[in-house]
Amino acid sequence: MAVPYGTRFEATFDQVFPQGALMVGEVAPDMEYMSAEDKGRGRQAKQRVDERTGKRQWKVVVTDPSAEKERDASVTVTVLADVQPVPPQAVQVMPGVEVRPVAFEGLTVEPRVMGDRYKYQGFTIRATGIVSPQVGAAPKRAEKPQGEQKAA
What pTM, to 2 d.p., does this model score? Predict the structure, then answer.
Protein backbone atom coordinates (compact mmCIF):
# COMPACT_ATOMS: atom_id res chain seq x y z
CA MET A 1 0.00 0.00 0.00
CA ALA A 2 1.43 3.35 -0.98
CA VAL A 3 0.71 6.34 1.23
CA PRO A 4 1.04 9.61 -0.69
CA TYR A 5 3.70 12.07 0.48
CA GLY A 6 2.19 14.74 2.71
CA THR A 7 -0.60 12.56 4.11
CA ARG A 8 -1.89 13.89 7.43
CA PHE A 9 -3.22 11.37 9.93
CA GLU A 10 -5.81 12.37 12.54
CA ALA A 11 -4.75 11.76 16.14
CA THR A 12 -6.15 12.42 19.59
CA PHE A 13 -4.36 14.64 22.07
CA ASP A 14 -3.80 11.64 24.39
CA GLN A 15 -2.12 9.67 21.59
CA VAL A 16 0.37 12.44 20.81
CA PHE A 17 0.88 13.77 24.36
CA PRO A 18 -0.02 10.94 26.81
CA GLN A 19 1.23 12.92 29.85
CA GLY A 20 -0.03 16.28 28.60
CA ALA A 21 1.87 19.29 27.28
CA LEU A 22 3.28 22.47 28.83
CA MET A 23 3.47 25.57 26.65
CA VAL A 24 6.82 27.37 26.49
CA GLY A 25 6.81 31.03 25.44
CA GLU A 26 3.99 32.59 23.45
CA VAL A 27 1.94 31.84 20.33
CA ALA A 28 3.93 33.28 17.41
CA PRO A 29 3.19 33.68 13.69
CA ASP A 30 4.99 31.11 11.51
CA MET A 31 6.88 33.38 9.11
CA GLU A 32 8.28 32.44 5.69
CA TYR A 33 12.06 32.21 5.35
CA MET A 34 13.77 35.36 4.09
CA SER A 35 17.29 35.37 2.68
CA ALA A 36 19.81 38.07 3.55
CA GLU A 37 19.34 39.48 0.02
CA ASP A 38 15.59 39.81 0.53
CA LYS A 39 16.12 41.52 3.88
CA GLY A 40 18.65 43.85 2.27
CA ARG A 41 16.09 44.81 -0.38
CA GLY A 42 13.63 45.74 2.35
CA ARG A 43 11.12 42.97 1.62
CA GLN A 44 8.64 42.23 4.37
CA ALA A 45 8.31 38.68 5.68
CA LYS A 46 4.93 37.02 5.16
CA GLN A 47 3.13 34.71 7.52
CA ARG A 48 2.85 31.15 6.20
CA VAL A 49 -0.56 29.91 5.08
CA ASP A 50 -1.50 26.22 5.11
CA GLU A 51 -1.84 25.01 1.53
CA ARG A 52 -4.76 22.68 2.32
CA THR A 53 -6.95 24.80 4.57
CA GLY A 54 -5.93 28.33 3.57
CA LYS A 55 -5.62 29.24 7.26
CA ARG A 56 -2.70 31.14 8.78
CA GLN A 57 -0.03 29.14 10.59
CA TRP A 58 0.92 29.89 14.21
CA LYS A 59 3.76 28.21 16.13
CA VAL A 60 3.46 26.96 19.69
CA VAL A 61 6.44 25.33 21.43
CA VAL A 62 5.53 22.80 24.12
CA THR A 63 7.42 20.51 26.46
CA ASP A 64 6.38 16.87 26.25
CA PRO A 65 6.93 15.15 29.64
CA SER A 66 6.39 11.72 28.05
CA ALA A 67 9.31 12.11 25.60
CA GLU A 68 11.75 9.22 25.78
CA LYS A 69 14.58 11.06 24.02
CA GLU A 70 15.93 14.52 24.81
CA ARG A 71 15.45 15.72 21.22
CA ASP A 72 11.72 14.92 21.48
CA ALA A 73 11.15 16.82 24.76
CA SER A 74 10.57 20.13 22.97
CA VAL A 75 7.92 19.98 20.26
CA THR A 76 6.64 22.70 17.92
CA VAL A 77 2.93 22.45 17.13
CA THR A 78 1.59 24.39 14.15
CA VAL A 79 -1.87 25.79 14.87
CA LEU A 80 -4.00 26.56 11.80
CA ALA A 81 -6.32 29.50 12.50
CA ASP A 82 -7.48 32.73 10.87
CA VAL A 83 -6.66 34.74 14.01
CA GLN A 84 -3.96 34.31 16.66
CA PRO A 85 -5.03 31.63 19.16
CA VAL A 86 -5.26 32.63 22.82
CA PRO A 87 -3.74 30.04 25.15
CA PRO A 88 -5.21 29.14 28.56
CA GLN A 89 -4.14 31.01 31.70
CA ALA A 90 -0.81 30.14 33.30
CA VAL A 91 -0.72 28.30 36.63
CA GLN A 92 1.71 29.40 39.34
CA VAL A 93 3.57 26.37 40.75
CA MET A 94 5.80 28.38 43.11
CA PRO A 95 6.52 32.07 43.57
CA GLY A 96 7.81 33.47 40.28
CA VAL A 97 7.40 30.19 38.36
CA GLU A 98 4.38 29.69 36.10
CA VAL A 99 3.49 26.88 33.72
CA ARG A 100 0.82 26.86 31.04
CA PRO A 101 -0.75 23.39 30.64
CA VAL A 102 -2.37 23.15 27.21
CA ALA A 103 -4.31 20.69 25.09
CA PHE A 104 -4.85 20.80 21.34
CA GLU A 105 -7.96 20.21 19.26
CA GLY A 106 -8.07 18.83 15.74
CA LEU A 107 -4.62 17.24 15.86
CA THR A 108 -3.02 15.72 12.78
CA VAL A 109 0.44 14.20 12.39
CA GLU A 110 2.45 13.99 9.19
CA PRO A 111 5.47 11.65 9.05
CA ARG A 112 8.75 13.35 8.08
CA VAL A 113 12.41 12.46 7.84
CA MET A 114 14.19 14.76 10.28
CA GLY A 115 17.75 15.50 11.35
CA ASP A 116 20.76 16.97 9.60
CA ARG A 117 23.64 14.56 9.85
CA TYR A 118 21.76 11.61 11.35
CA LYS A 119 18.28 11.03 9.96
CA TYR A 120 15.36 9.81 12.04
CA GLN A 121 11.59 9.46 11.77
CA GLY A 122 9.72 12.49 13.10
CA PHE A 123 6.35 14.15 12.70
CA THR A 124 4.92 17.52 11.78
CA ILE A 125 2.15 18.15 14.31
CA ARG A 126 -0.74 20.44 13.40
CA ALA A 127 -3.82 21.48 15.38
CA THR A 128 -6.89 23.63 14.85
CA GLY A 129 -7.06 25.07 18.38
CA ILE A 130 -5.55 25.41 21.86
CA VAL A 131 -7.65 24.68 24.97
CA SER A 132 -7.21 24.04 28.69
CA PRO A 133 -6.62 20.37 29.48
CA GLN A 134 -9.31 18.53 31.39
CA VAL A 135 -8.36 18.33 35.04
CA GLY A 136 -9.56 15.58 37.34
CA ALA A 137 -10.63 13.18 34.60
CA ALA A 138 -10.60 9.52 35.56
CA PRO A 139 -7.36 7.79 34.54
CA LYS A 140 -7.58 5.50 31.54
CA ARG A 141 -7.27 1.84 32.36
CA ALA A 142 -6.04 -0.86 30.03
CA GLU A 143 -8.87 -3.28 29.41
CA LYS A 144 -8.24 -7.02 29.41
CA PRO A 145 -8.61 -8.68 25.99
CA GLN A 146 -11.77 -10.72 25.50
CA GLY A 147 -11.45 -14.31 26.64
CA GLU A 148 -9.00 -13.69 29.50
CA GLN A 149 -10.63 -14.41 32.83
CA LYS A 150 -9.23 -14.07 36.31
CA ALA A 151 -8.82 -17.47 37.93
CA ALA A 152 -10.82 -17.93 41.13
Answer: 0.79
